[in-house]
Amino acid sequence: MKYQVIRNEKYDFLGQFYATSYPNLHKYPATMLPQIGIEVLKELNISKGKLLDPYCGSGSSFASGLECGITEMFGFDINPLAILISKVKFTKISVNTIIETKAKLRNEIFEFVKNEQNINKIKLPNITNIDFWFSKEVAQNLNIIKHFIYQIPDENIKNFFLVPFSETVRDCSYTRNSEFKLYRMKSEDLVNFNPDVFGVYFKKLNDTIFIYSNIYFPKLTDDIKVDVQYSKFQPNENSFDVVLTSPPYGDSRTTVAYGQFSTLSNEWTGIDYARKIDGMLMGGIKAKSILKTGVIADYISEVNKVDNKRALEVTSFYNDLEVSIKKVAKSVKTNGKAIYVVGNRTVKNIQLPTDQFIAEKFEEQGFRHLITYERALSSKSMPSKNSPTNITGKTVNTMLFEYIVINEKK
Ligand SMILES: C[S@@+](CC[C@H](N)C(=O)[O-])C[C@H]1O[C@@H](n2cnc3c(N)ncnc32)[C@H](O)[C@@H]1O
Fold it and tell me: By C-alpha distance, which of 208, 244, 259 is closest to 79?
């Protein structure tokens, strides 16, 4: 092992979940425990300056930053659903206005549905295979909710109401909710599936209001600025004091399908490239030759012996990660820290040392590797077992540990 890894039980947070300190406003795959970020920022004595998360997802690193006193935070993600969740969590809006808007929305919807003729007046949005994913009644009712949410003039309040809408879309669709990938329920389950869309929406809205007003709103003092964008990270030289992030651990097609998880929500909120997102994420475009240098090369060469296609897929992910690390490294100030929380995935029974790769790439960009902590993975919402050989029934434990890789700019 070229870069030192220390098993650190302090970071296991056994028995703790995301919700233990910062319940999410919306389900999201492979979230990072905010507790990890809080602990590591404290250990490094970081309580001010600018924080960057180039793969911010639903924003757990901002929860960590907020808890440690950081007031300026910047995030990027190319999944619009991720940005919607992060934005809503960390934008301060009046809880009274939310409650008044909820009452107005409820009245508008219930008045509207009293007259059946109204229902056909609003055109259904462009959802791919809408009849495959939604019953006619569910689609109509979702459309009514959407129609009135889009009449809310204030962008931030509209976004707030879209978060429970997005979860309602998922829960009332024929998707299997236990999967991140977009799979339809078994046909025998469809017959009895008849969700009360308005009931589900207003229950989720109440839950969102409860969590936002009790957990997030009280911490959003006027000096807090969280700026998130749907985009790949845009470098900005010597700008950030700390990078805290949990990047994907492989391409979306063979690891966590962020795009598929979000497809229906993104389509209902008007994202026309919703079905292309997985291909746009890291590792989405296949490399033409396998990676031959650095700490990862031998491992990829082992994969290549058994499967050239998989070796190229894996290479494309590491190529993208390297390009991204170069941009991130440039954007960190001298003495600034880069904290990456990653899993080392297994491909063809070969465990790929992504933690070592990250340490190496930062060192190549003028950083010093301080330490990597190994933590036992108990509560991250991602599969710890899969079938890397693609032999049905043959599974191996792929990720029982996670690594917190800490580098400092010289
Ligand atoms: C492990 S998740 C981050 C989870 C986040 N820490 C949270 O708690 O929700 C990785 C994120 O990287 C995003 N992503 C993948 N490739 C990207 C890229 N090239 N640029 C920006 N974001 C990307 C995915 O959409 C996903 O949201």
Answer: 259
